[in-house]
Design goal:
The chain is mainly α and about 80 residues long. The protein is built from one helix and no strands. This is KxDL domain-containing protein.
Length: about 80
């Protein structure tokens, strides 16, 4: 097998693998940092998002109730 591949090619492959490993490690470090930052940002806004979601659900329930009453009133108006 050694006679089929030159030592220069093997060394070139090893250097390329080392370069790729370094880039992957750098990318991994960036992703870890980004995940930590994202987790921190989410922790800061999650309670606010939850309260806004509850408010929106309450508003939707109120609007559903209003439209149900309006439909009832319109049905009564057309019935008489």
């Amino acid at each position: 097998f050694r006679s089929l591949v030159s030592a220069e090619d093997v060394e070139s492959i090893k250097q390329a693998q080392h370069l790729i490993l370094g880039r992957l490690q750098d990318s991994n470090a960036v992703l870890i940092h980004f995940n930590e930052y994202s987790e921190q940002c989410f922790a800061e806004v999650s309670s606010d998002l939850a309260s806004k979601a509850r408010l929106l659900k309450s508003m939707k329930d109120d609007l559903d109730h209003i439209f149900m009453k309006l439909r009832y009133l319109l049905a009564c108006l057309f019935f008489f």
